[in-house]
């Protein structure tokens, strides 16, 4: 991001750069003309491009694994496993033979 001020303006800018964001800590200026509208629209356009890139990247990541789903015709399956019965106080259940 580039912010250019004309010679008729005085500006003080403090910023922090991140991988996908620019944090403006301080932006003060004085000018005889209205230049803030242009800066605001430029910052909003930059934010919108970042959001669009994030949405496109998330869409690609979420759909990338689903296109290559292959089914194995005769897949090996686990044998049927009997689950242990619920615990009952004072009684011993003998109906289940293969407790895990």
TrEMBL record:
<protein>
    <recommendedName>
        <fullName>FACT complex subunit SPT16 middle domain-containing protein</fullName>
    </recommendedName>
</protein>
<feature type="domain" description="FACT complex subunit SPT16 middle">
    <location>
        <begin position="1"/>
        <end position="100"/>
    </location>
</feature>
<dbReference type="InterPro" id="IPR013953">
    <property type="entry name" value="FACT_SPT16_M"/>
</dbReference>
